[in-house]
Amino acid sequence: MEIMLQEENNTLKIQNEQLSAKLRRAEIFTSRAQEVVSAIRASTGSKKSIAFDEEQRLRKMLKLEEEKARLAQQLLRLSTNVLKAAGIEKSVSDVNPSIAEEALEELKNWINTLEMEQEDLIFKVCM
């Protein structure tokens, strides 16, 4: 039992040393990358340090723009499906929400008309 613990301990020590070496290499790489970025920023006249607040603001803006693009795609798909349901064939470039809204209104009117005709027929059958 004690031998197994010693073997496991030795294995863990070796893994720890390997991870420490990887960490040191990563720190060296990161340091070099920061130096390169600083040199590039200096050559372009930018600030030498990275403005993390600005970076976070830009990341938020990027996420918002990605969300807007995703929602626009969904709206386009929805509009296209509404037009298909209304029997209107348009190219994707001609599809827009206002046309889809008009088509949806026409569909609602058509459904209301059919419901009224159905009620009339039911009334006539029952008489």
UniProtKB/TrEMBL annotation:
<dbReference type="GO" id="GO:0005524">
    <property type="term" value="F:ATP binding"/>
</dbReference>
<keyword id="KW-0547">Nucleotide-binding</keyword>
<feature type="coiled-coil region">
    <location>
        <begin position="54"/>
        <end position="120"/>
    </location>
</feature>
<keyword id="KW-0505">Motor protein</keyword>
<keyword id="KW-0175">Coiled coil</keyword>
<dbReference type="GO" id="GO:0005874">
    <property type="term" value="C:microtubule"/>
</dbReference>
<protein>
    <submittedName>
        <fullName>Kinesin motor domain protein</fullName>
    </submittedName>
</protein>
<keyword id="KW-0493">Microtubule</keyword>
<keyword id="KW-0067">ATP-binding</keyword>
<dbReference type="InterPro" id="IPR044986">
    <property type="entry name" value="KIF15/KIN-12"/>
</dbReference>
